[in-house]
Amino acid sequence: MKKLTNYMKKHLTIISLLTFSISSFAQDRMYGKTWAGRSEVMAQNGMVCTSHPLSTQAAIEILRAGGSAVDAAIAANAMEGMVEPHVNGIGGDIFAIVWDAKTQRLYGLNGSGRSPYSLTLEEFKKRGLTHIPATGPLPISVPGCVDGWFELHKKFGKLPMEKILSHAISYGRNGFPVHDELAMSLQNVPRLYGKFPNIKEHYYPNGEVPKRGDIFKNPNLANTLEKIAKGGRDAFYKGEIAQTIDAFMKKNGGFLSAKDLADHTSTWIEPVSTNYRGYDVWELPPNGQGIAALQMLNILEGYDFSKIPYGSTEHVHLFTEAKKLVFEDRAKFYADPEFAKIPVKSLISKEYAAERRKLIDPNKAATHYDAGNPALREGDTIYLTVADKDGNMVSLIQSNYRGFGSGMMPDGLGFIFQDRGELYNLKEGENNTYAPHKRPFQTIIPAFVTKDGKPFMSFGVMGGAFQPMGHVQIIMDVVDFGMNLQEAGDAPRLNHDGSSEPTGEPMEGVGMITMESGIPYETIRGLMQKGHKVGYTLGQYGGYQAIRYDPVRKVYFGASESRKDGHAAGF
């Protein structure tokens, strides 16, 4: 409970006098839900939804030049790494779900990297660590982003990579204005990352961190991307870049080596699904947490939300208890399937959900749940989505994990390594226990929805452990509560902290529900009466993008995140 208490003191204000009404969430509009801040974007020939306008523009230009949805998604991701380095970049991992119009099926890509061969569990023991630190060399795993790009491009690309990466390269050399979210994040760089090599020279060479509206350039990253565009994925994993990384790690006490990079591969995997009231919701299986959303939906399907109002005490209570149940399984089972047996089919089955649902008390918040035993019946980021004129759709997510990642920036390359390795468990004998050349538990999850075997919606909600909760809220908003994509994105969100984690932390009593100000006070009071702890905080509710396809009128509908700098555009 100590961890949650400290978190509350630092970030939360316990609600006692919150009286906002849901209608105060946005300015008055003549149509749509009262909280919707803008309309869906509609277009016929292509749609792009990303978290920054320059990234959306780059992808639109690729589509107009005859590129595929995958080409445009790669262009947008490269631009995101340039303009939003605080949440993603080529030092991180990537996952994608692709709807291929030609074969009429979904493809899943796991582009996550593995831990270094030379870093062992014994090394952590020698250092007296019970948890892997967030910064420095210890949490660094192989960055999978670049290989993921080339795997996607090889299967679904049309244009050359020189063209696809040209926008990011140009902005790296010529600069771009620092936007609000980046400016806010950069203020923390000296305090959190200033002690690490190359950070000062890169982010504040004149002793001053760039401010909102300042022009920021990253010629080192532009040069790196140019080498990748010309030399392919091997330029990163086997060539000069790999040697630079190897030398940097040796010089700074790191473990990532040229061999770790040379041996890296992405994995094509089959997405898995559950049917929620006639809609097939698709996620990628572990080492990610996507199936947590499917497990939650299976539990919640047992309740009639046509009779349970949106934002009501009953809605929030049932959602929270379903999350608690599922996150116990998430902590126990989700890991690299090459190192642990994960009963995915049983975990996402309707039968297992029915048994778990019986544990929910409709009138009381649970203080403890155990993980289930499904095996007996047979565990910061950017998100973007793109659709093209041929009907192909891409759901893509990519991340450093936490902020600027590990803080470790290799000499002259212009990017920071992820700290995804922080998510291993250092307790022996667990599914997610650290081991060399093992993929860590991953939080980043793309999603997709089909109906009657045809594409319906490509979407995602970034934000660490919030992501499965965000996915479920979007599906419920659209399916149960009849919202369009933008209304679903703008609707007030809720989060729950305090469940057991794959890194070894146990469940902390009832935990804490936090929510945005649009939830009425009557709901908050009702939740308190059921034993929940309720509060509110800023910035814990993810970043959302979505595209829906209307097959009758052949129109794409796009939506983007109003809480950030999201931008949906089509043509």
Could you describe the 3D structure shown?
- This protein is α+β, with helices and mostly antiparallel strands and 571 residues long.
- It has 2 domains: 223 residues, Serum Albumin, Chain A, Domain 1, CATH 1.10.246.130; 244 residues, no CATH class.
- 34% of the residues lie in helices and 17% in strands.
- It has 21 helices and 20 strands.
- A 7-stranded antiparallel sheet has the order 2-19-18-14-13-10-9. It has a 7-stranded antiparallel sheet with strand order 8-5-4-12-11-3-20, covered by helices on one side.
- Strand 11 and strand 12 form a beta hairpin.
- Helix 3 packs parallel to helix 7, helix 15 packs across helix 19 and helix 16 crosses helix 21.
- The N terminus is likely disordered.
- Pathway: Sulfur metabolism; glutathione metabolism.
- One of its GO terms (molecular function) is glutathione hydrolase activity.
- Belongs to the gamma-glutamyltransferase family.
- This is Glutathione hydrolase proenzyme.
